[in-house]
Structures are given as structure tokens and as C-alpha cells.
Write a structure and sequence with these properties.
Layout lengths: L1 H17 L3 E6 L3 E3 L3 E11 L4 E2 L12 E9 L6 E11 L4 E5 L3 E4 L4 E4 L3 E6 L23 H37 L11 H15 L7 H20 L8 H11 L4 H19 L6 H18 L16
Parallel strand pairs: 2-10
Antiparallel strand pairs: 1-3, 3-6, 4-8, 5-6, 7-10, 8-9
Helix pairs in contact: 3-4, 3-7, 4-6, 4-7, 5-6, 6-7
Length: 319
């Protein structure tokens, strides 16, 4: 009977111990040379219902022990337990003996704090055998290549000054070239311009020969006819007729009294009909086209500076 009780008690305590939270630390080596690496493993086990807080060091474990890298792995070997492996890669650049501080674990559910035992860690200097090691001279500093950005940061004041000199030199050269051109400018031979009425009458004769409206090109006919008259007004009266609307031309002649009533009526007939043909797509009748050309001749001949007496034998201006 006692043996059964002993077995039951041992099983109970084994089960209870298995349900406890544990944290253990181990080091793959306790001695490294300066700059070498060692691997510290923190083994954490806890019941699945436990809430754990594990502080993880980021840069150093102590003043002389640096962390190169760290990872944490989850091991699923028992569905009733949480099992984690926290792995640190550590190094040191100071020789001596150091103690890796205890690593902590806080069980939030119970409020207990667990920690590992400190681990002794030694860092040794590298022994140099001068009998076998060849000694070399100290190398001179290696010139690091300059990037474009570094060059611009250093040289931009000089570049700006150089750019300013180029601009000043360019302006001076342009000014000198311009002044030299003025000095050497060739003498222009001014050819006397034809009289306004000569140009207009020639253009009207050419328009008549084209027979545009007779070939169903009425809009083109009135565009040329109105341009001939507007050019004549500019050359004869020095007004901006090409840039003015027909209404503005009517108001100008009405207020200035440059034209007599008969010629003014002829101007209104030609330009008004031309506007309707160009912009309103009106197709004037044949007698209106012919009348517009006759009125254009009448306007030019009536307002020319050197009036020309038309003989009875001179042909009529039929379209």
C-alpha cells in the first residue's frame, strides 16, 4: 500500500513541476577572442494560459558586451505549453572577464519574476607571434572618391562666381557687337513707295480677272475685296483699317468727314455685304457682287490724291 502512495505522490509532484514556468540561459562558449562572436540562448517555457513579459535587450547586455543580432523562435512541442528560444549573437572588443547579467521573465498572471543565473564570459586578446608574422610599414591614407554632391557643396561659391563672369562677359560681347553693327550698318536705299490708289487699282483689276464669284467662290471674293479696300484706307488715310471692324471704320469716316456722302455710302455697301458673306454665310446675288466691285473702284478713284479724269473711251468696271 505504501508503494502505491509513493508512486502517486511522485507522479503528482512531477506533473506539478512540469506545469511551472521556467527560464534558462546557456552560452555556446565562455571564451572568445576580441571581435569574435558567441551565442547566448534563453530557453523559456510556461503553461499555455500564462501571460509572459520578456524584456529583450537591443544593443548591449552590459557595458562591454554588445549585441550583434537577436532572434526569437517559437517551438510547438507541447500543446499545453508555451516554448520560446531567444537567441543573442554577442561580441566584445575589450579583453577581460565579464558576467552576462541575469535575463528576466515576468509572469503577468501571477506577478512572479524569474531570472537566469549570471554566466561568466571571457574575452582574450589575440596573441601575435612576431617571429612568424611579417611586419609591414604603415599604409598611407587611402583617398576616398568624391561624389558629385560633395563636389558641388564644396565648389558652389566658385561655380557661381564663374557663372557670373560668363554672364558679364556675354553681355559685354553682345553690347560691343551691337554697337559695332550700328557703326558699320549699310546705308539703306529707300525705294519710293507706289501711291495708294495705284496699288489698290492694280489689286482690283487682278481680283476682277480671277472671276471668283462667277466660279461659286463668293466668300473668297469678298475677303480679297475687303482687304484691298482696308489696305487702301491705311495707305491713303493712315488709319488702322486692317485691325478695325467694319463698324469702327464707318464711325471713323463719319466723324472725320474724310469722305463725301456718296463715297461713304459706297464704303458701307461694300464692307457690310463682305461681312455678311464672310461671317453670316450669306450668298449675295450676281448684281450685288458686280455692284461691290464697281463701288470699290469708285471709292479709290474718288479719294485718290492725284485725281485721274476718266475718259468716255475707258472701259467700264464690269465684274
Amino acid at each position: 500500500m505504501r508503494s502505491w502512495i509513493l508512486i502517486i505522490l511522485i507522479s503528482f509532484f512531477s506533473f506539478a513541476w512540469a506545469q511551472e514556468t521556467n527560464i534558462k540561459a546557456s552560452l555556446d562558449t565562455n571564451l572568445i577572442s576580441i571581435g569574435d562572436q558567441a551565442h547566448l540562448k534563453i530557453d523559456i517555457q510556461a503553461p499555455v494560459q500564462s501571460e509572459l513579459i520578456v524584456p529583450i535587450a537591443q544593443d548591449t547586455l552590459s557595458k562591454s558586451i554588445e549585441i550583434v543580432d537577436w532572434t526569437i523562435d517559437t517551438i510547438k512541442d507541447n500543446p499545453d505549453f508555451q516554448h520560446y528560444l531567444l537567441n543573442y549573437s554577442i561580441t566584445s572588443f575589450d579583453s577581460g572577464y565579464y558576467a552576462i547579467p541575469p535575463q528576466m521573465l515576468i509572469e503577468k498572471t501571477s506577478g512572479d519574476t524569474l531570472q537566469t543565473e549570471p554566466i561568466l564570459f571571457a574575452v582574450a586578446t589575440i596573441a601575435v607571434d612576431t617571429t612568424k608574422q611579417e611586419v609591414f610599414d604603415i599604409k598611407s591614407p587611402v583617398a576616398a572618391p568624391w561624389s558629385l554632391i560633395e563636389f558641388l557643396k564644396e565648389a558652389y561659391p566658385y561655380l557661381l562666381a564663374l557663372l557670373g563672369l560668363f554672364i558679364i562677359a556675354g553681355i559685354a560681347f553682345w553690347w560691343w557687337k551691337k554697337s559695332r553693327k550700328k557703326e558699320q550698318a549699310p546705308v539703306k536705299i529707300i525705294v519710293p513707295k507706289e501711291e495708294a490708289h495705284v496699288i489698290a487699282l492694280r489689286a482690283l483689276a487682278q481680283l476682277k480677272e480671277k472671276k471668283l464669284w462667277q466660279n461659286d467662290r463668293t466668300k473668297e471674293y469678298f475677303i480679297e475685296l475687303s482687304e484691298i479696300l482696308r489696305n487702301y484706307f491705311e495707305n491713303r488715310f493712315q488709319v488702322a483699317a486692317m485691325e478695325s471692324t467694319s463698324q469702327e471704320i464707318f464711325e471713323l469716316f463719319s466723324s472725320s468727314k474724310m469722305l463725301n456722302d456718296e463715297v461713304f455710302v459706297a464704303v458701307k455697301q461694300v464692307l457690310s455685304l463682305a461681312d455678311m458673306a464672310k461671317f453670316a454665310k450669306v450668298k449675295p446675288l450676281a448684281h450685288e457682287n458686280d455692284l461691290s466691285l464697281k463701288n470699290a473702284y469708285k471709292i479709290v478713284e474718288s479719294t485718290q490724291i492725284n485725281e485721274k479724269v476718266v475718259s468716255k473711251e475707258e472701259p467700264s468696271h464690269d465684274a
